[in-house]
């Protein structure tokens, strides 16, 4: 069976709120994470672009002269271009990669030693090498710009190492945070906007599911009652045997899902008798061996009738196996012991008990004590001893309650049971 449907507006609101809240939280976290990484990447790319533009300022005619002369000392142009508030240091190399100039400003010696040890990347004339490097817990930008002469020939390289100033770092952090929060806020706002629409759709879906469930159960009741009226002249048998089955299953601690299958199977347990000729089904006396053989085909016929209905797949085990015996002498499959499904073993007990204590056209009803003696005697051969024992404990009270009830009262009791195990009823308006 599917999960229980919400029964009240509060349950419907609560279910949608929880599910939409969880979905929005997951999507918001994903969107925020993606936005964080995207904005972080964009910020780092912007920082690289800024560092690249700054580094290009050093690839000037003055720098060409420095490289050509090989004696950069005293060139005020370099000192002017070197912004010591942003640049950690600068190195100049000739075309062969030999250093001809360096300026590290006031950088720490330990930092300078590490940066000097960095291998020079020598890009082609029209290319630039740039990358982030981590040194002594600092996140620095490393840029190498080729220097071309007036004739376009590659004459050397400028390598700059820079850090982001405090204002830029703060701006990047603000950008990343704003992007992530905007993404999260957009998801949350969308969830709030969609909530009324989804609530209406869920309510409609719930109403349709409930209507379908009610229709299925009504069809089961109608079909089961039609067979019962043809067989015994009354539909009370179906109500009684189903109520007995529910009481026994509850006493055994059977799950609500299995009880719902038990209820559906109980109402349709003899549906296969539709295919039994009236001359055999309604015969007042004992059946001949040939007639008995025909009668014993009704579990198989019943299974064939419900085959292909997924909703009755589990209930079909009662239709097919409610005449099996624990000792393997039952029909139609001769199952033995726990090979017989639990709900079929439960139903077998109550079906025989109601047949014994009910009036039929060919017999008078048996008293409670006599019927219980038969159930006790057949325990271990026909019936599961644990199930038979549990039934012996609850049978007297159930028997009095059920046999003294009018048909309308039986219907009401069964309706209350359906409310417990199938969650029927009209959903109140959503307010």
From TrEMBL:
GO molecular function annotation: phosphoric diester hydrolase activity
PROSITE patterns linked: HD_GYP (PS51832)
Region forming the signal peptide: none
Entry keyword Transmembrane helix: yes
Residues annotated as domain HD-GYP: 212-407
Pfam families per the UniProt record, alphabetical: HD_5
SMART domains per the UniProt record, alphabetical: HDc (SM00471)
UniProtKB keywords: Membrane, Transmembrane, Transmembrane helix
Record field: transmembrane: 20-38, 180-202
Protein name, entry field: HD-GYP domain-containing protein
Natural source organism: Zoogloea ramigera
């Amino acid at each position: 069976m599917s999960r229980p449907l919400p029964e009240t507006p509060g349950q419907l609101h609560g279910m949608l709120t929880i599910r939409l809240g969880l979905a929005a939280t997951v999507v918001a976290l994903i969107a925020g994470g993606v936005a964080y990484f995207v904005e972080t990447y964009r910020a780092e790319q912007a920082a690289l672009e800024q560092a690249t533009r700054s580094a290009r300022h050093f690839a000037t005619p003055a720098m060409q002269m420095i490289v050509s002369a090989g004696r950069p000392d005293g060139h005020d142009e370099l000192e002017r271009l070197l912004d010591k508030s942003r640049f950690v240091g600068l190195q100049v190399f000739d075309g062969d990669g030999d250093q001809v100039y360096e300026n590290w400003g006031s950088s720490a010696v330990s930092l300078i030693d590490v940066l000097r040890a960095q291998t020079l990347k020598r890009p082609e004339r029209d290319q630039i090498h740039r990358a982030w490097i981590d040194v002594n817990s600092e996140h620095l930008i490393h840029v190498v710009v080729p220097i071309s002469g007036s004739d376009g020939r590659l004459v050397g390289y400028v390598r700059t190492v820079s850090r982001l100033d405090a204002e830029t770092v703060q701006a990047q952090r603000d950008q990343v945070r704003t992007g992530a929060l905007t993404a999260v806020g957009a998801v949350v706002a969308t969830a709030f906007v969609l909530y009324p629409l989804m609530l209406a759709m869920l309510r409609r879906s719930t109403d349709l599911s409930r209507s379908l469930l009610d229709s299925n159960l009504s069809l089961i009741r109608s079909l089961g009652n039609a067979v019962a009226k043809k067989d015994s002249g009354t539909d009370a048998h179906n109500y009684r045997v189903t109520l007995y089955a529910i009481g026994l299953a509850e006493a055994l601690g059977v799950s609500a899902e299995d009880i719902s299958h038990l209820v559906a199977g109980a109402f349709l347990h003899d549906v296969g008798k539709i295919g039994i000729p009236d001359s055999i089904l309604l015969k007042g006396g004992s059946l001949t061996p040939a007639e008995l053989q025909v009668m014993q085909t009704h579990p198989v016929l019943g299974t064939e009738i419900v085959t292909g209905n997924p909703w009755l797949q589990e209930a079909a085990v009662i239709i097919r196996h409610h005449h099996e015996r624990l000792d393997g002498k039952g029909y139609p499959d001769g199952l033995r012991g726990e090979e017989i499904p639990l709900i079929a073993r439960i139903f077998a007990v109550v079906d025989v008990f109601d047949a014994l204590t009910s009036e039929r056209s060919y017999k008078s009803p048996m008293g409670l004590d006599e019927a219980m003696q038969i159930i006790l005697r057949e325990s271990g051969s026909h019936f599961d001893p644990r199930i038979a024992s549990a039934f012996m404990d609850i049978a007297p009270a159930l028997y009095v309650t059920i046999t003294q009830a009018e048909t309308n009262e039986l219907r009401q009791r069964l309706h209350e049971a359906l409310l417990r195990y199938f969650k029927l009823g009209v959903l109140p308006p959503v307010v």
